[in-house]
Amino acid sequence: MTSDIILSMSHIRKEFPGVVALDDVSFRLQKGEVHILLGENGAGKSTLMKILSGAYGKDRGNIFLDGEETQILNPRHAQKLGIGIIYQEFNLNPHMTVAENIFLGREPVNRLGIIDEKKLNRTAREIIQDLGVNIDAGKKISEIGIARQQMVEVAKALSLNARILIMDEPSAPLTRNEITRLFEMIRRLAKRGVSIVYISHRMSEIYEIGDRVTVLRDGKNVGTRNIAEIDRRDLIRLMVNRDLDERYPSRTAEVGEEILRVEGLERKGVLTNINFRLHRGEILGIAGLMGSGRTELARAIYGVDPVSAGKIYVRNKLANINSPRKAIRLGMGFLTEDRKSEGLVLVLSVKENITVPSLHKYLKFGVLNFKRELETVNGYIESLSIKTPGANQMVINLSGGNQQKVVLSKWLCCQSDIFIFDEPTRGIDVGAKAEIYSLMNLLTSRGVAIIMISSELPEILGMSDRMLVMHKGSIAGELTREQANQEKIMEYAIGEHRNYN
Questions:
Q1: pLDDT digits (tens, 9 = 90+) for 180-221
Q2: CA separation (Å) from 363 to 248, 349, 366, 481?
Q3: Where are any strands of DSSP class E within 160-270?
């Protein structure tokens, strides 16, 4: 090993019941580099990093730190070795201050054994300033935004003298400006010799922040490359073992009759005078900046949140949608932005998640027809290509893309013909994205209508037949596919132009 190799993982194997998650995987990390870890959902990225951070034990293989073989016993041991990890779901106490979170369990104390508040806050401020960010160490976590919470996680890792920092999809919840600041901080850390392992599905980020990239596919390492020496197409081919000729498949569905109409919908202080129509076979894209009211609109239509005014018509009939149960009965399905906490019950099986809203269909005289239920679920597993050892596999063990397919199957099982997709491809790799897009097109070809909310403008432009752009809780503009481009959408999104009443 060369002197600049800080970490070497050799021939790592990890098995779970019915699944080989990692098969003879080797990975090397250099001092002060930003190393991208790339691969489809289920490729083994998170498993490899959980072994490195002590959350999982390996079944086989060797780990070397600074050339010395090391057995990483648990997460606390990994921290002592200088390995920090920041998961997508932050591990912060919202009721405690920034400083208290950074030093939780390791608070400085005085001679009497009482927490030294002055030293706690002073040391926290020094670490935060060293990161080049502006955060009040005395503020509670609940009082600061997502981007700053992420910086607190980084500060916490650095307070433990982390030499290796693992970041799992760190940009997913951030705006473009916040991502820019995150990258500035990452570059600053790398210059100081901290080694970053950066897991991401966003191809543009890889070329913006990465030095090298390692690609995992089906639990195997299929190659490590210098970022500057591999183009996007070759990188995707390494990931999925096939060419993705069209990023967004061509739309062929015919737009039919009106299926949903929203008139004058309002929610005090949140939504103002929302008016639009949705037709069978149509994908209606909803764009806008964070905080513009996109998700709030979806929740209001679906009966999750109460409205103060307005009417909703479903199939030309006035509908009183005052609960999700009512929306489901009207044939509406909602794929929420946070599928893990709102769209799925992670500790239940694939079968149970798919059939739970429509279980009555499999009951006869109060007895559940298990055979018919299983046949239905297996049909969805096959038709949607859900990668799972079987219908009884717990959903928590599936990749993000396959979890999204389970949510989609749930609503198909309910025979929904109006779908709301809120950030349908967030946290999903390029291969799974292509499958989701194809499934959306298949649905619309069968007369299903889709409202698609997305923060990714290329996705809005590539998949939508029409686009609504929201600004401060109202619809600022409507664009056809032919009229739309990123510049026009952004004009409406920032309130520079309005053409909608």
A1: 888 888 998 899 899 999 998 777 788 999 999 999 988 999
A2: 40, 19, 6, 45
A3: 164-168, 195-199, 212-217, 220-226, 258-267
